[in-house]
Protein 1
Amino acid sequence: MDSVDPAGLPKQASRPSFSYHHTVSFKDTNVVGNVYYTNHLEWQGRCREHFLRSHAPGILDDLSKDLRIVTLRCSCDYFAELHAFDDVEVVMSLDARDGHRISLSFEYLLEGRQIAQGHQQLGFMRMTPSGALEPTDPPPEMIDALSRFSHQAGPAQGGQNAC
């Protein structure tokens, strides 16, 4: 964490990112009234899906054929609670690409304060005729789209896009 705000919560980092906005519903909460922890992981998935729709729509056709995007690892660290009707911004950035694998980071923001952070490692695979999965490089459209949201991208390549 680079720095903290007066409440002791991590401040939002400025870097090229893609944002997904979510309003917490009662469905997202548990009997105590706060957001059930697994929902943060679900929102990571929604953020990825909206990213694909907005920046790499050609991948959707490949996914209906033999391309698979497999979640290899995911995590989330929680700094503060969320409740019904909170407006959350889930901010996704590319951390790294290594062959067929990519690593993504997620920041969860409430009124500009980071309330959680998450990470995912994804693998790109192709389904063989025998039904086995084999590693494959991400399609060029995906590489191009993700490169605009890399931590290493400069201001001319990056920027913040929202959904």
Protein 2
Amino acid sequence: MPQVLVQLFRDRGRLRRLPYWLGLVLVAGCFALGIRVFETLQLGAGLRRSGLLACFAILLAWLAGRRLSDIGASPWIARVVIFASGAAPSVLYYLAMNDRVPLGIAITLTSAAMMFASACLLVLGLIPGGRGANRYGPTPEERKALANAARAFE
């Protein structure tokens, strides 16, 4: 289990499915805890919650990007999907409050954006990683074998 956490918090490289799922659970748990703290302490719904949501989006994009690296795809795909899905509700809310978009359409489009991002995160956790090294590095198993071989020569 500690090796899985080490893989999760590494700053680059590939991320296998188990650390990815653990990371999603950890990030979602921290987000839920943060929301609960804001509600309990009555810290307001404005800037503080927006900051928490931004941190949540950044962590999700980071996890999804590392997972895409394991599959062999560009991590930028995750960043675009997560941030577009996160920005869409803010823009639609602004437009709805200024009577430029009907509220029902804004809610429907916001729900669709969130469901799309959630589906993407789910699919990333189900797709097996690529076999062998790719442009984002060796597989975690190969990295471990290389580290053991390097220690043998010390």
Protein 3
Amino acid sequence: MSRQLSWFFVSLCLLASMPLSAARDVLEEPVSLRAEADLIKAVALTLQHAITTSEQFQGRSPALRKFADKELKKSRSRLQQLGKRIPEQVPPVRQLAIAPDNEQSYVRAMLRNHARLVELIEHGLGLPLSADIKHAMEALSSNAIAERAFLNKMEQS
């Protein structure tokens, strides 16, 4: 009995020592937006999520493949621009809450991503932002809203 208990405690200790970040959902993490840098980091991480989701997409729909390819190019470009404004590197997203195994799961994942992006930007626009960051955030938001319309249409079909 004591042997089983010791294995239980060893297993429990190993489980407790595992990094929580391995199973985290970056779109559900709470964010404190107190300064421009906070907004940039949160938006950059959301863009990194879009990149990972689009890279892993395995669907065959030509319209969604084209969307995913465009999403990769745009998100990488925007991430590179925002990366110039923050000192640390944006970590890659390794764990996705919704794996983009097919068209339906990709659409759901990207709808979540774009909703989070719009939400972050809407809250962040209340902060004192430099003119170029404010302009970039407004452009990102309007683009995400337009893409959500496309994704909603794809979800209905």
Protein 4
Amino acid sequence: MTLKDTALISVTALAEIMRVAHIAAGSTRQSFLFYSVAALLYLALTTVSTTAFQRAERYASRGVRRA
């Protein structure tokens, strides 16, 4: 399972993270800081969700023969 499998969730999360970063960057004029934090947060969220989905898929496919 890849990030592509959870595209709707990731797009929604990215839009929300970027909206908050845009608001924070506009009010403090430190755009690089807020967009960098947003990028790292998104990377962490996608890494955790990808790992969780891989484990869930492995758990669900126990006992299934592979061709």
